[in-house]
Design goal:
Layout (H helix, E strand, L loop, with lengths): L1 E4 L1 H8 L6 H12 L4 E5 H12 L4 H14 E4 L3 H7 L7 H12 L4 E3 L13 E2 L1 H15 L1
Helix pairs in contact: 1-2, 1-3, 2-7, 3-4, 5-6
């Protein structure tokens, strides 16, 4: 299953944000095991760097991002993506860009915490808790 991860899910792990870190770590474990194909938007990378840099040294953040690049594919945002994002009917432009990136990467869904902001989405949008439960049930059946 191909899933685009919202910026906050990655930050939950890197910044150890409670109570969200537990489910976010579980999702990263699914990616690491190859049971989930993870994507992040290129627009998220600079935000992740900026916010993680408030807690960690530049060298530490660079290493964290390098590790992320091993786990996740980065979906680059083009001019066409930004133009398409205006047409999706989202209140928040950044959310519309994330949604457009997920569509262009042929993702089967997006994982994020602010589900109400994605009411216009035609792709499934999962909370971390819901996706973790779904994946556990899926892979539990296969064992």
């Amino acid at each position: 299953m191909k899933i685009l991860f919202d910026t906050n899910i990655i930050l939950d792990v890197l910044l150890l944000r409670k109570p969200f870190v537990k489910d976010a770590l579980a999702l990263l474990a699914f990616v690491e095991k190859g049971l989930l194909k993870g994507f992040i938007s290129s627009t998220a990378v600079t935000t992740i760097y900026y916010l993680a840099r408030k807690k960690y040294s530049a060298a530490k953040v660079r290493n964290l991002l390098q590790d992320l690049f091993l786990l996740f594919d980065v979906v680059e945002s083009s001019k066409d993506d930004f133009q398409q994002a205006f047409d999706w009917g989202f209140k928040d432009f950044e959310d519309a860009v994330v949604y457009q990136n997920a569509r262009r990467a042929d993702c089967q869904g997006i994982v994020m915490r602010n589900l109400k902001d994605f009411s216009a989405a035609k792709l499934p949008v999962y909370s971390p808790e819901h996706l973790v439960k779904k994946l556990y049930l899926t892979y539990q059946k296969e064992d």
